[in-house]
Amino acid sequence: MKISLNWLKQYVALEAPVDEIAHALVFLGFEVEGIVRTGAPKLDHVVVGEILTRVRHPNADKLSVCTVDVGPAGGVKTIVCGAPNCDAGRRVPVALPGAVLPGDFEIKQSKIRGQLSDGMMCAPDELGLGTEHAGLLLLDGAPALGTPINEVLPSGDVVFDLEITPNRPDALSHIGIARELAAWFRQDLRFPEIKFNDLVTETARPDILSEVRVESPADCPLYIAILVTGVKVGPSPAWMQERLKAVGLRPINNLVDVGNYAMLELGQPVHVFDAKKIGGRRIVVRRAADREKLVTLDGKERTLSSRMLVIADADKPMVVAGIMGGEKAEVDSTTTDVVLEAAYFRPQSVRWTSKRLGLASDSSYRFERGVDPHSTFEAARRTIDLILETAGGHVVGPLYHVGGDRPWKREITLTSDYVRRRLGFPLSDDEMRNALKLLNLAIVGESRKETGPEWTVDIPSYRSDLDRPIDLVEEVLRLYGSDRVPPAPCIGPALLDGDDDPVVVFNRKVSAYLVGQNYHEVVNYTLRSANELKVWVSRAAAQELALANPFVEDQSHLRPTLLLGMLESLKLNQSRGVEACRLFETGRVFVERDGVAHECAAVAFLNCHNEKDRAWLPRAAADFYTAKRHVEILAGHAGVELGKSALSPVSGAYPDWQEDHSASAGEMTDGWAARFGLVNLAMLRAAGIEGQVWAGIFVILPEKLPADSIRRRYQPISLFPAALRDIALVVDASRHADDVRRTLAQVAQAAAAGAFTVEQIKVFDVYKGQGLPEGKKSLAFSLAFRSAVRTLTDEEVNAAFTKIKQDIAADGSISVRV
Predict the structure, then answer these.
(1) Domain 46-151 belongs to what architecture?
(2) Domain with CATH 2.40.50.140 in the chain
(3) Which of 92, 317, 411, 642 is the 20 to 30 Å CA partner of 808?
(4) Contact by Cβ (8 Å): 57, 115
(5) Which residues contact 229 (CB under 8 A, 6 or more apart)?
(6) What architecture is the 211-403 domain classified under in CATH?
(7) What value, to the nearest 5°, has the Cα angle with vertex 639 and ends 637 and 641?
(8) What is the model's pLDDT at position 493?
(9) Which among 739, 731, 735, 744 is positioned nearest to 781, based on CA atoms?
(10) Among 3.40.50.1360, 3.90.76.10, 3.30.56.10, 3.40.50.10860, what is the CATH number of 411-483?
(11) DSSP state of 416
């Protein structure tokens, strides 16, 4: 945001050098991104001269030879000039020999096409006044000949380009910055005088405006409309134009300029309607209809939706509320009656509409961050004063006021001892009181405690960012100056030999593994939109993980999974032709269980296979087992042996996974959960993602991570051979192979009775069809038996195997296929 120093001086006496003011702004919390000085620089040997005569140059058609009187600075000079407006009788800036103009251009006596020239008459750009070079700078008011040009030209201005943080909307105005500088330099703050006091002496004009109605009070809690008749449209005063131009705005006419001036002065956007263009003499604040059209002031037709707030008349929308007006309601040269609008619009509504339309303005910039609704009346009155001053006219009734001030009362209790403990250095009670007073933070109550005074501090409505005692400590420090904090040794426990946090260790290990598997790391926000959660997760999660006061509409919920952000990154890569299709992310997710949101550490990956991709040697595509193996290794880094856990096929509870191609384990019952497999194909297509996506995610509560690094201990390998046996089991077709494998493992371990180990059981064949009863399938398993101290005999292995076949069929749900 651009701030004019000349403008600031209307409200606070600033005599400090520019560098000192910039220093103050930085330490008050506003980054100074640039400083621009306008106006002419110091120019020696450049004076006021009057053109006496003008004749054509004998050797050049486009040049003129002029005699110029510079008075006491050198009398009459002969100067060759190429400007079209070097007519006799005009007073212009004259650079005499020895002058150095901007750009280190030194003026010397010289011959131009054989004609002696004793100086140069100057255009605005040659004096450092903008870029205009169409002709000489003509001086108004007949200044005395020979007067140094710096005494004639305006003194110029200094413009600060500031970065205002989103939590300080009160500083998005000249009054807001003046308030801060007044506190820093211990100066009084002078507010502009407001003359209009809501008293209307003129007869009401319902024939011009008969009704103001707000149909969406949640989006517009306060709306003020004031009618002014008999205005005359024309240029705004020079002082107003200069201030607007200094901060980068182009003056248009007095009514438009007044609206911009009031916004930049007070921070409250206002809008001026041409009253005769308000259809039906009625203003309605309402939601737009779906597909409703509006041509905005930038000449573009906007298609609106029912979530967007508009200011409409009886027939059509006139303004996108809080963002930009429409062409059909703007002020023009024929305007005689106007309606001034001053309102408070809900920040979330303005922000959402601005983003969806791709339309931003100085007005939306302020409404998005939250203007102070308690200053709306003041801004309306100030704007009326400016309209009457610059365009004339009369205020007529009635004054329309729909809604009202939002109740505001905020007090914070603060003790001087708390301030000193948080600052870490001594500061007197009087210095704290003075800092609060200078920042308009009134102490409305004080009591004595053993450790010092306790204050009750009243927070003004424009400082909604202050709501905790620590915020007031920051305010005290801002005004004291962080550059004055005394140096002190940093004393604390040495952690040089300590272990890193388990979450950090876990993230480091899984990242190293996935990078080694040729995955690219992505980083996304921990906040997602409500619609995403409803579609990809569940409505219950969308309810439980919603933020109470979201900053933006599409970041309104805590994320329950990392997949949403990674799929968004994958889609972006595909749309840009980026080949990175193996992605992973580590970070926090929030898992909702029984109405409680648990913050968990998580790692997720995805691998996209697109058959349209061309390669001279196609690689084998990822599949379910690829994803499963990755998740097993990732879980192992958290101390979880996924291979020993029961797997379940995903169901409708996880809409983001493809049924019959995905599995889950854990379900947070033991503090962790895992899911892996194929991402829902229909949802991928709806999201615009091409190809199959195999993915996996592992989630664990931080307290379940091992505090110490897992140290693997040496396990001796048996040097004796394994004894292998195969068994085929007939089970229900709906029964999962892993469930049968775990049952078989329990029976085999019991049959071995500790004499040797059942080293491995794995399925190697699945059969359905002829020879089996209807609704049954055959699962063939390979069993490996081994001893660490001897070679197993066939007799003992066969005895155990026989017992296995008997016991596995004992409950009748499993039979041995022969």
Answers:
(1) Beta Barrel (2.40)
(2) 46-151
(3) 642
(4) yes
(5) 202, 205, 208, 275, 336, 337, 393, 394, 396
(6) 3-Layer(bba) Sandwich (3.50)
(7) 100
(8) 67
(9) 744
(10) 3.30.56.10
(11) H
Low-confidence ranges of the chain (pLDDT < 70): 405, 492-499, 595, 611-618, 708-712
The whole-angstrom separation of Cα 447 and Cα 740 is 74
Which residues, 6 or more positions from 442, have their beta carbon under 8 angstroms from its beta carbon?
436, 457, 458
Among 37, 555, 558, residue whose Cα is nearest residue 246: 37
Res 497: pLDDT: 56
Query: Strand 648-649 relative to strand 527-528: parallel, antiparallel, unpaired?
Result: unpaired
DSSP 148: B
CATH 3.30.56.10 maps onto the chain at: 2-39+157-184, 411-483
Can you give the C-alpha Rg of the chain in angstroms? 39
Distance CA 732, CA 772 (A): 11
Whether the CA torsion 505, 507, 510, 512 is positive or negative: it is negative
Beta strands in 347-434 (DSSP E): 394-403, 411-415
CATH topology (fold) of 2-39+157-184: Phenylalanyl-tRNA Synthetase; Chain B, domain 1 (3.30.56)
Dihedrals φ, ψ of 154, to 5°?
Answer: -55, 150
Q: How many residues does the chain have?
A: 818
Residue 699 structure tokens: 């989630």
Asked if residues 282 and 211 have their Cβ atoms less than 8 Å apart, the reply is: yes
Distance of CA 630 to the CA centre of its chain: 35
Distance CA 396, CA 411 (A): 40
Peptide bond into 143 cis (omega under 30): no
Q: Report the alpha-carbon distance of residue 70 to residue 54 in Å, rounded.
A: 15
Which CATH topology does 502-704 take?
BirA Bifunctional Protein; domain 2 (3.30.930)
DSSP letter for each residue of 326-364 = BGGG---TT---EEEEEEE--HHHHHHHHHHHT---HHH
Residue range(s) occupied by CATH 3.30.70.380 in the chain: 723-816
pLDDT tens, 429-476?
Answer: 999 999 999 999 999 999 998 888 999 999 999 999 999 999 999 999
Tokens of 695: 């993915």
What does the block give as tokens for 602?
């998580």
